[in-house]
Write a structure and sequence with these properties.
Layout: E1 2-4, E2 10-14, H1 20-25, H2 30-33, H3 45-56, E3 63-69, E4 75-85, E5 90-97, H4 107-121, E6 127-133, H5 137-145, E7 149-160, E8 163-173
Parallel strand pairs: 5-6
Antiparallel strand pairs: 1-2, 2-3, 3-4, 4-5, 6-8, 7-8
Length: about 180
């Protein structure tokens, strides 16, 4: 699968076997991993390979797409729809860019809009939700710009970098997406 984006410098594509090292690379990078509550423990390359194999074998309840630079073919990150509920027609959204030098170029916004548009138009989902640490200002700004609305707070949910942080929950309905 390939999804074009509004940023001609990137495309979303299906994962490939050779993406294992790129998938693994960000988990040990404290500048990236510090914003992810559920991946605080360094991951092994083998664990990344197992995850990749599970996705290549087909999982109807999860869609994970690589964010790739069109000019270089470099793996920039991962955009995901997780825990898809086909009955309730909703899914959890997640995105990660694998290095700081890939941020600030519009890649995150373009990938977010492309996969969410795919969720609403192709998968016919009704609602997308996500969680984000209260300290992740860049992500919160992005989510709000594309139309996500904060729906709740899990107060002092995560102990990170020596302090408790709130976990914020956001939701987006089909008609709220701002492209």
């Amino acid at each position: 699968m390939r999804l074009p984006t509004s940023n001609e410098n990137i495309v979303l594509r299906s994962l490939k076997t050779e993406d294992a090292l790129s998938l693994h690379s960000w988990t040990d990078n404290p500048e990236i991993a510090r914003f992810f509550v559920f991946t605080r423990v360094p991951s092994s390359l083998e664990r990344s390979r197992r995850f990749l194999e599970s996705q290549l074998n087909g999982d109807p309840n999860n869609v994970h797409l690589a964010i790739e630079e069109t000019e270089t073919g470099d793996f920039v990150g991962l955009a995901s729809l997780k825990n898809i509920s086909w009955i309730d027609r909703n899914a959890e959204f997640a995105i990660v860019l694998v290095s700081e030098d890939k941020t600030g170029k519009g890649y995150g916004r373009a990938a977010t809009i492309a996969i969410i548009d795919y969720a609403f138009t192709t998968l016919n989902l009704h609602r997308i939700y996500l969680s984000v640490l209260s300290s992740n200002n860049r992500a919160k700004t992005l989510y709000e710009k594309v139309g996500f609305k904060q729906e709740g707070v899990w107060r002092e949910h995560a102990y990170m970098m020596g302090e408790y942080q709130d976990l914020l929950w956001y939701g987006l309905m089909r008609e709220e997406l701002k492209t």
